[in-house]
Amino acid sequence: MARSIRLEFEGAFYHVMARGNRKAAIFVDDHDRRFFLQCLADVCEKTGWLVHAWVLMENHYHLFIQTPEANLVEGMKWLQNTVLGTMGVEDTAQGRKKMVERLDKRAAEERERSGFVAVDAGADKRGSHLRRGWYWGKQAFAEKLMKLGEAAIGRKRKARGYDASPERKAHGEQSALVLLEEGLRLAKLTKDELAGYRCTEPRKVLLACLLWKKTTVSQAWIAEHLGMKNSANVSRVVHRMDLSRLEEKVSEELWRFVGVKMKENEH
């Protein structure tokens, strides 16, 4: 299905919809639906999104969301990649390559069915070679889209009450660096000391989980900044973390800091 150009700005509202390839089922049973909703909750925690309504159908879903930050693309990239399993591929480099190949093939099939005609690189940039999103339609439709986009971006609209909202806090790399710096201070660790500790060291595990749950940085980023060698180590400790076993192994200050941050802006 054709997708409109993704316009991102603070306080925006979006109707997000995704459908299975060739209208194939994406939810087999209630287990699949619960898994998707858990992924949706996770991405809200990472990005600060607010979900006002959602509908899960057999072969597609609808979301009505609000993004206090201009991070729709970043959040959707995480959400869609996390349900990689529904496409029959693993969350590995090879699996992601297969997914991209399938999406490219699907895009080619959709363009062929739509009567799409390829254009030269120097042609009107409103064609389907836009860096994000496609449009299919006549020139008048293209011009209308561009005017709407320019108006929305120019206004930089914000939702009412946004300035006072706790969701205004950034969830990207800058936020991760702030959390990491404060966490290391309370853990009485320096960046140079991190590599000398195992990946399962309680303080490193807590900080890895905090960064993964509350920001949109990648597991590779967390691995690099916490001295955990690779993203696989981060994934393993985050998903196997047992909070009950960590509380007595870290300082009260660090435990309280992580606990407070993990509870902020819960959705």
Q: Which characteristics define this entry?
A:
three-stranded antiparallel sheet, Alpha-Beta Plaits, single chain, mainly alpha, 2 domains, 3 strands
What is the C-level CATH assignment of the largest domain?
Alpha Beta
Q: How many helices in DSSP terms?
A: 11
Q: How many runs of DSSP E, i.e. beta strands?
A: 3
Please write the string of helix (H) and strand (E) elements: EHEEHHHHHHHHHH
Distance between the termini: 30 Å
Enumerate the spans where pLDDT stays under 50 for 5 or more consecutive residues. 125-132, 156-169
Query: Averaged pLDDT, please?
Result: 77
Helix/strand/pairing category = mainly alpha
Principal-axis shape: globular
Residues in helix, %: 40-55%
Q: Main beta sheet: strand number and arrangement? A: 3 strands, antiparallel
Rg over CA atoms, rounded to whole Å, is: 21 Å
Q: Which percent band covers the strand fraction?
A: 5-15%
As for the number of domains, it is 2
Shape-level CATH architecture of the largest domain: 2-Layer Sandwich
The third-level CATH topology of the largest domain is Alpha-Beta Plaits
Order of neighbouring strands in the sheet with most strands: 1-3-2
Write up what this structure looks like:
The protein has 267 residues and is mainly alpha-helical. It folds into two domains: 144 residues, Alpha-Beta Plaits (2-Layer Sandwich); 95 residues, Chromosomal Replication Initiator Protein Dnaa, Chain: A (Orthogonal Bundle), CATH 1.10.1750. The protein is 50% helix and 9% strand. It has a three-stranded antiparallel beta sheet, with helices on one face. It is globular, with a radius of gyration of 21 Å. The relative contact order is 0.12.
